[in-house]
Amino acid sequence: MAQFTENFLQALVAGLLTGSIYGLMCVGLSVIFGVMRVINFAHGDFMMLGMYVAYYAFGLLGIHAVFGATVGPYVAALLAGPVIFLAGVLVHRLLISRVTGMRGNALQAEGHYAQLILTLGLALIMQNGGLYLFGSTPVSIATPLASNAWTIGPLVGDRVEIFVNQGQTVAAVIALIVVLAFVAIMSRSRLGKALRAAADNPEAATYMGIDVARSHRLAFGFGVAITAIGGGLLASGISFQPYVGLEYVIVMYAGVVLGGLGSVSGAFLGGLTIGLVQQMSTLFLPNQLQNTAIFVVFLFIVLLRPQGLFGTALRRT
Amino acid sequence: MLEIDSLSAGYGLVPVLNAVTLRVKPGEFAAIVGPNGAGKTTLFKTISGIVRPTSGGIRFDGRDLLAVAPSARPHLGIAHIPEGRQVFASLTVLENLQMGAYTEAGRRAWKENLEKVYSWFPVLAQRAKAQAGALSGGQQQMLAIARGLASSPKLLMLDEPSMGLAPTAADEIFERIVSIHSGSGLTVLLVEQRVAEALHFADRGYVLEAGHVVLEGSHDELKSNDRIRQAYLGM
Amino acid sequence: MSGTDSPASNRRRQALLIAAFAIAYGLLATFVEHSYYLLILAVVPVWAVMGLAWNLLSGYSGFVSFGHAAFFGLGAYFVALAQIHWGLSPWFGIPCAAAVGAVAGLVVGIPTFRLRGHYFALAMLAYPLALLYVFEWLGYQELALPMQREHAFAYMQFEDHRIYVWLALALMVGAMVLTSLVERSRFGMSLLAIREDEAAAEAAGIRTLAWKLKAITLSGALAGAAGGFYAVVLLVVTPPAVFGMLVSAQALIVAMFGGVGTLWGPVIGALVLVPLSEVLHAQLGSIVPGIQGVVYGVAIVAVILLAPEGVFWKVKDMITRRRATQAPAGTRAGAVVAALPARSRHADGAIVFEVRNASKAFGGIRAVRDVSLQVRQGEILGIIGPNGAGKTTLFNLLNGFIRVDAGRILLEGRDIAGRRPYEICAAGVGRTFQVVRPFRRLSVLDNVVVGAYVNASTDAQARRVALEALAQVGLQNEARQLAGALANKQLRLLEIARALAGKPRLLLLDETLAGLGAGEVEEVIAVVRNLAAQGITIVIIEHTMQAMVRLVDRFVVLDDGALLAEGLPEEITREPAVIDAYLGKRWRIANA
């Protein structure tokens, strides 16, 4: 019993810590989904790019040398944000804007799927191009914090001890701060309100003088940048290779759909829940099936609450 | 103030507007009436840039509007209150008004505009913190108009403000529009399916049918026109 | 689809083309010695079959699948495991793999078809990825098919690799024949209608869910067979190779590259892309790992940006547009408005249709409140009311798009409330839409043929009924045009014809006169009157009264979701409440 309690609490802590980072990544996806109504298939691959940016910034750009092995990985992770923001804005301008927004609506019949398939193509290029650029050997950012843990306990008569990984804790706190900062921007600033207005009703937003195409571009940039920071934070905890994004794209969609379309705080909570599901599943399932557990949860979510996601019931009329 | 010259537009292969010409003078209250599907809303969307014309020209304050990006047109002083209200349902009433004041002019005059708008529509002040989607249809229409006014426009374009409203609510909206027009001297271009009311208040009217302007004239000319009386007023 | 020749000669030409292609491809293989090139030649048809499988579901029905690897992988693992554990020869294993794929398709389809659009695509993505991890966990990281040197032929293990090419070719020809049979039948037409507009298809009597399930089952079977054969050719099965995203992506990409919703599209796509990526992989794979994925990625991005629906459709659209613009415009002057048959009142006819206390609310908005009305045999009932009065919502309740919260809807005494739209259509209720919803990429005739299926036992009969319906509305000369190229009046008439083809006893017309010029209104009114004269009962919505006064026998006025007034045209126009709702109080006072 004590063993189970310990395992349970350990999984709970691990779930909350990983979940915070998943939450951050989900917020990024939810911005794109919420503002542009676009499913970005390549979102996991922008996360992957963020991981490699953090990795190379830490090693090659000398962040390791300047900030040291303890602080450096987090600086590198935050640096991934602006870099991937620019990449996202560029990709949106060159490719995605051609099939979305007002122009996308003008396409007939399957035009509606165009962006979905376009981002699938992007995902293939990024994954496989990444193989050439970064190689297939898994890498990781080395930080001493990742192998240190605080010990809580002993609790319940000396028998239960929980280890809280220091690296993960710092990462989770940073994730939380980034989310809060972003929520503040979205709810308070003029830019945030304009983005929300453009998401709510692009046509009416145009009548207000809001440049909807620019709003979409910024939303796409913000979205991939936030997720890239999440990737950067994850990069010191796990080892990764160019295909890593694929596993996370479903993790992120599960979180976003769970949290409710377009809601930033909902997306964070959704991601947190997915982190918990993933870690808790290890109590009952073999490790290899962690991701399967997430996929099953994801399927259940989309199958049980398809309404309220895209308003399909309304579209029928 | 607004000059539209033989404007044609359509969706795909289907033409909707056919060489429409009309003029709105500064301070005027102009109305465009006609049956559903005649192209009234398309005309408004073409003025705002959502629909691209196939030929013809639009000038606003002497400036070629077609050379201006859609999202830049509100900044010139055009406020388009779209058909079906289209308030930002997930934003609060106050945030909706702030979005109305997205234009430079609206931002500068924010305080006065807000006061004015609240005095015209006191219910909006009471519900400033409520989500716009939670308002009743009539209140949403008021918000849509207020949002347009918050941009300090020169031209107010109203697309079927009475649509879907109970007759009493529609009457109230009309009263408010008329008092705003007479009180502020704002130029108003109204599209309406309530032909009688629209022509009653307008200085000048245009009848649009199947994309053509079939009739135009001053208030008195139209009101005494037999064709109008027969076709639209059921007399 | 709407070829210029009869269906039979079209079919013969198609069969000849397929045979010619297969013979040429088979002969090509006989001249190739190098086993690597033979492998490529054997793999091309496999991916063509995957493309055809994807196309059968996603290309025709428009439900985009990102998960065909699930069926492919299950097929591959079935063949491998069955041979390892039970000694089952692939000769039997591959047909069984097709069955496994079919069952998987059905199992996946039943829950997943509750989703639409992006959600369907995403959910489909999750299936193969979940399976990938399960198979890794089961310990099937690398499964080799045991060599059977004694019974090589019995286990599909040939010294001469050309035989693999021919087998693959046979599989592909089978998939092509199947596709072409589907394409030209009620099955394929129904899927196309679903792709163009699922709600309109359902309202026209198409059992959309049943057809979609059939499509995914068949599609899963093809993909399962392709997977099974792939395992035999490569001799080794690994989870990433058969469940990986590249598998699903390749299926989609070969189909999209060549042309979505066409027979030859997936074949052309596979012929171009598979050898290209294989050769590049062989030449550059060591320097540029992942080049295959990049090739497919670039191919799909290019297709989406340059020809979003595949080369086939783009060319077809261009040709049709050119023809449409060359066609002489303005035949309106020649149209003869038939003398209007005199209308008799139907006060004594039997009640065909009745609505009792129907109500419907969306959230807090009560769109329809306690509406009751009766329609008599052969009557034309007009429903008028301002925009937003709940007229279209009422129609949506009547034809089953949405369910009533309370109340009953009786068709000839039977309660049809809560039935699916296709059931209500089959029961004898046809409808048109306020914003026209034709199947734009189908010909005018095919649009109407889709509407005829509900009451036709054979495809030939459906065609005959459709031609009659077109003649009734006067569109027989436009039968071969794409519906998307029609003008407003013709689209309105097309919708009437589509509804008519289902042999309805009650016809619901939603703002059929909207946006028509004065002359056009007269033409459409004449058509509607003729239908009524044939005994079809008609309910028509309009929001203006002018033309309606001359068309209908009786009016019902809706305002704000509730019944405001009811009566004969001359009564209604004098009703003060109606004048208020329509013309505004002020006007009445001013003109009193």
Produce the secondary structure layout.
The complex is a heterotrimer of chains A (317), B (235) and C (592).
Chain A: H1 2-36, H2 43-59, H3 63-94, H4 101-106, H5 111-134, E1 149-155, E2 160-165, H6 166-188, H7 190-200, H8 202-207, H9 212-234, H10 244-259, H11 264-284, H12 290-304, H13 312-315
Antiparallel strand pairs in A: 1-2
Helix pairs in contact in A: 1-6, 1-9, 1-10, 1-11, 2-3, 2-5, 2-9, 2-10, 3-9, 6-7, 6-9, 10-11, 10-12, 11-12
Chain B: E1 2-11, E2 14-24, E3 29-33, H1 40-48, E4 53-60, E5 63-64, E6 78-81, H2 93-100, H3 104-108, H4 110-120, H5 122-126, H6 137-149, E7 155-159, H7 167-184, E8 187-192, H8 195-201, E9 204-209, E10 212-218, H9 219-223, H10 226-231
Parallel strand pairs in B: 3-8, 3-9, 6-7, 7-8
Antiparallel strand pairs in B: 1-2, 1-4, 4-5, 9-10
Helix pairs in contact in B: 2-6
Chain C: H1 7-30, H2 35-61, H3 68-86, H4 90-112, H5 117-137, E1 143-144, H6 162-183, H7 186-196, H8 198-203, H9 208-234, E2 236-237, H10 239-243, H11 245-258, H12 265-284, H13 291-306, H14 310-326, E3 351-362, E4 365-376, E5 380-384, H15 391-398, E6 406-411, E7 414-415, H16 421-426, E8 429-431, H17 444-452, H18 459-473, H19 488-501, E9 506-510, H20 518-533, E10 537-542, H21 548-551, E11 554-559, E12 562-567, H22 569-572, H23 576-583, H24 585-591
What is the number of helical segments of chain A per DSSP (H or I, 4+ residues)?
Answer: 13
Quote the beta fraction of chain B. 25-35%
Name the quaternary structure: heterotrimer
Radius of gyration of chain A: 20 Å
What structural class results from the helix and strand content of chain A?
mainly alpha
Output the radius of gyration of chain B: 17 Å
What order do the SSEs of chain A take from the amino end to the carboxyl end, as H and E?
A: HHHHHEEHHHHHHHH
**pLDDT averaged over residues of chain B:** 89
What does the overall shape of chain B look like? globular
User: Helicity level of chain A, as a percent range?
Assistant: over 70%
Categorize the overall geometry of chain A.
globular
Largest sheet of chain A: 2 strands, antiparallel
What strand line-up does the widest sheet of chain A have? Answer: 1-2
DSSP helix fraction of chain B: 25-40%
